[in-house]
Amino acid sequence: MTGRDEYLGRISRQGEAEAKKWMPFASISGIIFLVATIWAYIATKDMVITLAAVGFTVWWPMFGFSHVLDGKSMANHPEKLKWLKKSPQMYYDMADVLFKDIIYEDEDVILSKGAVANARNLSQIAYTKDVFLVYKYQNRARITIVTFTTAELLVLLTAGNPVIINIKKKTGAGVLADTILSVCPNAKAGYTKEGLEYANMMKQNRS
Per-residue pLDDT tens for 105-123? Predict the structure, then answer.
């Protein structure tokens, strides 16, 4: 199997999983929409109230089924995704490198000697030689006086678009950052002024 085949196969499976994830919500909200519409009409015999019930509840099944359809489209025709259609050969070339010599892989990241990708969003992929800065970032939310972390991210600034990995495994971003840095010859670590300037300079030199 070529890297291209593996790449498209994984995207397809992710699309199928996305469709399955949204199907219960779409189905339940669709039932609520029907019940609310029928009840409003039977109980009031008023078309204005019935239309109001339709307008209030129809958005939820539309929202859910749009995600189901997007997932199905992604599963059946991954090669037709907008971002992939823009530069298909670029992604397929990187996929060949990514799946050739995998060093480390988990639910968050795929790392080989020559490329790294966000395992949950395969549009985020880069050659390891084009990774210039790796740093950890925490999304935080605040409720009254309590602040808590909502997500732990690992950000890779590259010659192209950033690769932003949402870390969900228990080992955390620190261990993963060290692993990635060990195979990215041009990468520096840490969110610093010097690191950002270096990443921008390297990106400009590659463009």
Answer: 988 899 999 999 999 999 9
Q: Are residues 110 and 196 in the same domain?
A: yes
Report yes or no: 204 and 148 within 8 Å, Cβ to Cβ. no
How far, CA to CA in Å, does 97 sit from each of 2, 3, 93, 177, 192? 10, 7, 7, 20, 30
CA 196 remoteness from chain centre: 24
Does some domain include residue 62? yes
Asked if 154 and 177 count as a contact pair (C-beta separation under 8 A), the reply is: yes
**Length of the chain measured in residues:** 207
Distances in Å between the Cα of 74 and the Cα atoms of 16, 49, 70, 78, 121 are 7, 38, 6, 5, 12
Rounded CA-CA distance 6/3 in Å is 5
Cα gap 167→188, rounded to integer Å: 20
Whole-prediction pTM value? 0.81
Distance spanning both ends of the chain, measured CA to CA: 32
Q: CB-hemisphere CA count at 13 Å for 169?
A: 14
How crowded is the C-beta side of 44, counted as CA atoms within 13 Å?
14
- Domain span at residue 120 reads 101-206
Domain count across the chain: 2
The per-residue pLDDT for range 38-83, each reduced to its tens digit, is 887 787 777 777 777 777 788 888 999 999 999 999 999 999 999 9
Residues 50/41, Cβ–Cβ less than 8 Å: yes
Query: Residue 74: enclosing H or E segment and its boundaries?
Result: helix 59-76
